TrEMBL record:
It comes from the Bacteria. The keyword Transferase applies. The lineage of its organism: Bacteria, Pseudomonadati, Pseudomonadota, Gammaproteobacteria, Cellvibrionales. One of its GO terms (molecular function) is transferase activity. Gene3D superfamilies: Spore Coat Polysaccharide Biosynthesis Protein SpsA, Chain A. Keywords: Transferase. SUPFAM superfamilies: Nucleotide-diphospho-sugar transferases. This is Glycosyl transferase.
Amino acid sequence: MADFYQNGIVTTLHNLTRRPVAELDAELLSFSKKRPLGLILPSLYSELEGTALPNIVEELAQVPYLSEIVIGLDRANEAQYRDALAFFSNLPQHHRVLWNDGPALRALDAELIKMGIAPTEPGKGRNVWYCIGYMLATGRSESIALHDCDILTYTRELLARLIYPVANPQFNYMFCKGYYARVADGKLNGRVSRLLVTPLLRSLKKIFGEMDYLQYMDTFRYALAGEFSFRKDVLNDIRIPSDWGLEIGVLSEMYRNNSTNRLCQVDIADVYDHKHQDLSAQNDQGGLSKMSIDISKALFRKLATQGQTFNTETFRSIKATYYRIALDLIETFRNDAIINGLTLDIHHEEKAVELFARNIMKAGESFLDNPMEAPFIPSWNRVISAMPNVLERLKAAVEEDNKRFSK
């Protein structure tokens, strides 16, 4: 059971009483009369063939308060898109599947790319961006949750707790981040969050001092959680990375655009497990290796926008400071694991820290070598300004695909 501690940067909403999910559902159903609620599910086709997503759909079928569910489908051919339409047809809520690789959406994407206002690389960021655009086009939802499709321990309580802070009309939150303990199979997981993000943020504080932004980022108990919710009003202006920096980028955008008293984090699950990425120590274009580079660059870019300057010596200092803090944290996590009857392999933990330290330098070198890199997907406000009918066209393309291929 969580404590009730508040650190004063963003509100933390704890799970103190284990409310029955039926009680939460009933409240959310009443909220939805004033503030319609929606859900975004960014998915790979391969996840339809796994064990997590079928259970997620079964749980969502019992949710009474959602006005719409939007599924972004990546890496699917026509036959697989048809399979996806059948797969999600069990959902009783109004729902649509965005076939991101289909000819209709690809044609629109090609036009936007020519104009320089589209995502430049595939991935979750691109998928989420188009789902956001579609939700802006439909106007069906005022408050929206987003979660991944590979959650092995999913129950509908996770969604209820995630969307509640932006659904309750008495609350003023514009954005909510989910958090949870990453524990499964008797082990402490979440290496990138524990061994990269936390010590890197604390090393940046040592180098640059106690900046409000760094304190804000270090407030989040699980900064890399793929589960968050928001009011529709925040979606037009948000600029997000298309790479593994998505979660850091979203938190940074919320900080840029909102007062921190309009932001919160909420405990959404006692147990959480999903598919695990390989460390990929020999390949910095995949797995946790690429993730660590993208996340590090996302933080460096944000600090640069706040006037901080970087050079090779700066990154050497960051790496050295990070390495010492991360190694000390391994002992902390080891003791936390032991008192809870969990295991933690110190050798593998230190191998991860060594890789992340190298990748902090790689991220720094890339940052210095590519000063004109445009890492963010343009905001929908900019896209609408350049192509005023883009939302209508996006909606029409999705509806056309759904009608044509669901037969």
